[in-house]
Design brief:
The protein is of the alpha/beta class and about 475 residues long. It folds into two domains: about 5-235, NAD(P)-binding Rossmann-like Domain (Rossmann fold), CATH 3.40.50.720; about 245-463, Rossmann fold, CATH 3.40.50.720. It is built from 16 helices and 14 strands. A nine-stranded mixed beta sheet has the order 3-2-1-4-5-6-7-9-8, sandwiched between helices. Strands 11-10-12-13-14 form a five-stranded parallel beta sheet. Helix 1 (about 15-25) packs across helix 3, helix 4 (about 100-110) packs parallel to helix 5 (about 130-145) and helix 8 packs across helix 11. The longest helix has about 30 residues, at about 235-265. The protein is elongated, with a radius of gyration of 24 Å.
Length: about 475
C-alpha cells in the first residue's frame, strides 16, 4: 500500500489540528482525530464545530459530508493509520520555559502503533533540535523501530491565522523538514496532495524565483511563492526554526513600534498616522502597529521557545529578551494611561467602574490564549477598580450579558480587543448619553476626534 493511500491520524483537534483533519478528509483521505476532550469529540461527531471560525466550520461541514472524518478520545483509534500528524499545544510554563509534556504524551500514544513505512509529522511549535533530541528517541524506544530507516519523522510548522478571511489551511504555503532526504520527499508529497500546490526546494527558490523577489536596501527579500506550495528545507532543525523565528521577527517589530508609541506619547505625536505615512514607502518596512499587548499561541510563545533553545546553546538573545519585556509590559503602560486620564477627571482607579472590552487576543476570534486582557485585569483588580467585562466572541470571562450593560454606569472604557461588531456599535454610540468620561483605546480602532467631540477624554496607544 502506498503511504498516501493510508489512513491519517491527527493528534489534537484544536485551532491547528481540526482544520488540518477536515482538509485531509475533504481531499479524500480517511481521517481519525484524537483529542482528550470528550465534549469536543462529541460535538465534532455531531458535525458541530467547537471553534468559532467560518472557514473552519465550512471545512468541517465538508469533511462530515464526505464521511471520511471521525473523532475519538480512544488512543486505540489510531492503530491502523499510516500518517500521524501531531498538533498538540506546546505552551510555556510559569517561568516561560517550554513545556514538552503534551508533545511527549502524543508520542507515547502513537509509538505503539507505528509500522514500517509510516510517516510522523510534528506540526506543534518546537525549538530547534526537539524532533531529533526528544521526539525521535521516544518514538524509537516505544516502537522498537528506527527513525529514518523504518519510519519517517518530519516537521511542518503550523501557520494558522485564526479569523483571517484569505489565508487558511487550504492555501497557506508550508515548509517541511525531515530526518532524512527520503522523509522530506514523502512529507512534501503528502502536504502537496492536500494543498494542491507545487513542491519547491528552499535553495532553488532563491534561484528560480529571483525575479519574483523584491530586493531592498536592507538586503531583505520577499518570495512570492505559489499559493499552497510546499517548500522542502534541508534539515529538520531548519524547519523547526522557521516558525519560532518568523514569529520572533513579528514580536521584535511589534515591541519596537510599542516603543515608538511611548516616544510618540512623550512628544505628543500620533504614531498611527506616522506609521501609515511610513507604510507609503514601498520597501524596508512592515507596517506593524502598537497596542495593549500581544497574545495568541504564536507571538507570545514562540520567541520564548527560541530564547530557551538559544540559552541552552550558550547564547542569551538580548534583543528577544528586550522585545518580550517590552510587549509584556504594555498592559501596565495601558493602565498608566488610564490612571492619568481618570486623575485628570478627578477619579481614582480604586472604586471606579471601568468597562473592559475584549478578552480574545485578536479581533474576531474566540481564542483568549495569552491575551493581554488577563494581565490588564489583574493590574486593575489589584488597584481596586470595579470591573465590567464584555467580549462578544469569548464569553467565559464576561461579567455582563451585553455591551450596553458593560458600559452602563462606567466612568471609563478600556478596549483590549477590537471585535468588529463591538467597535461598530461604539462608533455609532453617543457617549453623551452615558456616564463614560474616559476611553483608552488599546487597539487604536476608534476616531479620537469624534470621541473628543463628545466631551470624553480619549487616548490611544501612542496617539
Amino acid at each position: 500500500m502506498k503511504l498516501l493511500d493510508r489512513k491519517i491520524a491527527v493528534i489534537g483537534l484544536g485551532y491547528v489540528g481540526l482544520p488540518l483533519a477536515a482538509l485531509c478528509a475533504k481531499k479524500g483521505y480517511e481521517v481519525v482525530g484524537l483529542d482528550l476532550s470528550e465534549p469536543v469529540v462529541a460535538l465534532l461527531n455531531q458535525g458541530k464545530c467547537h471553534i468559532k471560525d467560518e472557514a473552519v466550520e465550512q471545512l468541517l461541514a465538508t469533511a462530515v459530508a464526505s464521511a471520511n472524518f471521525t473523532a475519538t478520545t480512544n488512543a486505540e483509534g489510531v492503530a491502523d493509520c499510516g500518517v500521524y500528524l501531531i498538533c498538540v499545544p506546546t505552551p510555556v510554563d510559569a517561568n516561560n520555559d517550554p513545556d514538552l509534556a503534551p508533545l511527549e504524551g502524543a508520542c507515547r500514544v502513537i509509538a505503539p502503533h507505528l509500522n514500517k513505512g509510516d510517516l510522523v509529522v510534528v506540526e506543534s511549535t518546537v525549538f530547534p533540535g526537539t524532533c531529533e533530541q526528544v521526539v525521535a528517541p521516544l518514538l524509537e524506544e516505544l516502537s522498537n523501530l528506527d527513525v529514518g530507516k523504518d519510519f519517517h519523522l518530519a516537521h511542518c510548522p503550523e501557520r494558522v491565522n485564526p479569523g483571517d478571511p484569505f489565508w487558511g489551511s487550504e492555501n497557506i504555503p508550508r515548509v517541511v523538514g525531515a530526518t532524512s532526504s527520503e522523509g522530506v520527499a514523502v512529507a512534501a508529497e503528502f502536504y502537496a496532495s492536500i494543498l494542491g500546490g507545487d513542491i519547491l526546494d528552499v535553495r532553488d527558490i532563491k534561484l528560480s524565483l529571483r525575479p519574483k523577489f523584491r530586493e531592498t536596501s536592507e538586503g531583505l527579500h520577499i518570495a512570492q511563492v505559489p499559493l499552497g506550495s510546499v517548500t522542502k528545507m534541508h534539515s529538520i532543525r531548519d524547519a523547526e526554526a522557521v516558525k519560532a523565528m518568523e514569529n520572533t521577527v513579528r514580536d521584535v517589530n511589534i515591541a519596537f513600534v510599542n516603543e515608538l508609541a511611548k516616544i510618540s506619547d512623550a512628544l505628543e505625536l500620533d504614531v498611527v498616522d506616522i506609521i501609515d505615512g511610513m507604510a507609503t514607502k514601498p520597501f524596508g518596512k512592515g507596517p506593524f502597529y502598537p497596542g495593549v499587548g500581544v497574545g495568541g499561541h504564536c507571538i507570545a510563545v514562540d520567541p520564548e521557545w527560541l530564547k530557551a533553545a538559544s540559552k541552552k546553546a550558550g547564547y542569551m538573545p538580548e534583543m528577544i529578551q528586550l522585545a518580550r519585556m517590552t510587549n509584556n509590559g504594555m498592559p501596565e503602560y495601558t493602565v498608566s494611561i488610564l490612571q492619568d486620564l481618570l486623575n485628570e477627571k478627578g477619579y481614582p482607579v480604586k472604586g471606579t467602574k471601568i468597562a473592559v472590552l475584549g478578552v480574545a487576543y485578536k479581533r474576531n476570534v474566540d481564542d483568549p490564549r495569552e491575551s493581554p486582557f488577563y494581565k490588564l485585569r489583574e493590574i486593575l483588580q489589584k488597584k481596586g477598580a470595579e470591573l465590567s467585562v464584555f467580549d462578544s466572541w469569548v464569553t467565559s470571562e464576561n461579567t455582563v450579558q451585553s455591551l450596553d450593560q458593560c458600559i452602563g454606569g462606567a466612568k471609563a472604557i478600556v478596549i483590549v480587543t477590537e471585535h468588529s461588531d463591538v467597535t461598530e456599535k461604539l462608533r455609532n454610540f453617543d457617549l453623551r448619553d452615558s456616564d463614560v468620561e474616559v476611553i483608552v483605546d488599546g487597539r487604536n480602532c476608534l476616531d479620537g476626534n469624534v470621541i473628543k467631540g463628545q466631551d470624553v477624554l480619549y487616548r490611544g496607544i501612542g496617539r
